[in-house]
Amino acid sequence: MTSSTGSVTREWDGLTIPAAGTYLLDAAHKRVGFVARHMMVSKVRGEFADAAATITIAEDPALSSVTATIQAASISTAQADRDTHLRSPEFLDAETFPTLEYRSTGVKSRDGNEFVLSGELTIKGVTRPVELEVEFEGVGRSPFGQDIFGFSASTEIDREDFGLTWNVALETGGVLVGKKIKIEIEGEAVRQA
Hints:
Shape: elongated
Order of helices and strands: EEEEEEEEEHEEEEE
Oligomer: single chain
Radius of gyration: 18 Å
Distance between the termini: 16 Å
Number of helices: 1
């Protein structure tokens, strides 16, 4: 696949990958979600509607990098009272800490189209190392002539490591909100001219 700007794909380690360049997360084709345990018996799913990321694909793919910014106030679990509580100082404190930030520090090829993206996640002013399990979904060209690639990523964090310690003990044992939070990201990235 080629364009007037040169090759838009290349072969690397048995994969067809994007050409080197800067790609932005497509706001219309992304999901930055999470899953938390509720009352020790079920799961609550939510997402952040407002998130942006810049992905720099290097000539050497192992030197590629990602930076992402998530607007804390854009959290949604489809339940207004819970969302208000999650934005409050007891959880994200979105007024004081308006963004969650991620900055990659390295990428390793695992197997086929699977990678591990090492980085630092900052929530509520606390930065911790986080490894994302990334699956490269493919590369192509949109009907609008944009060079794109797709990916999904996931990890699990302990929310208390980031100062998100609010909870309520249950009479039956356990707590209202689980400590472990699964993060699930899916998206398309669009090459910038």
